[in-house]
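Batch manifest, entry 17 of 40.
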Amino acid sequence: MTNGKGTAPVKAIEASTATVPAPTKLTPTSVTASFNRSAPSDQSAFAGGEYDNGPGHYAVDTSAEAAAAIAPVSGQYRAVVHRLLCSHPDGLTVDETCAIAMMPRYQLQPRFTELLRKEMIRDTGARRRNVSGRRAIVWRATVLDRMEGEA
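Output type: structure tokens
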């Protein structure tokens, strides 16, 4: 039997009483608590280090593989983000940065975390709507703060 479009109708899934295990909590292995914006303070670090030598990752095989794959170009991507933030003193959201750079979010968004951990960017406290309509952090290069302080 089909639904008129050449495909079989979807059957309703009956409720099950089976016990589903709780999701595994991912705990990074190197982020310091003072910069850990999105994770609870008991998560002390990423397995990949403090971002000095490349992207961090969670202690999960797929996360480690992704970090290893991006490592050769992560520095270039961080430079793209930092350069754009330096050229926009009022700051940019991740989506705005991606649009200007004409690069996908999945390549640049993690670079913001890396730059934040290195204290090269900061949250301005301002928020602007992103493409999904949600409020997004406006980031600013900290070198601009230092330059303004010296002026």
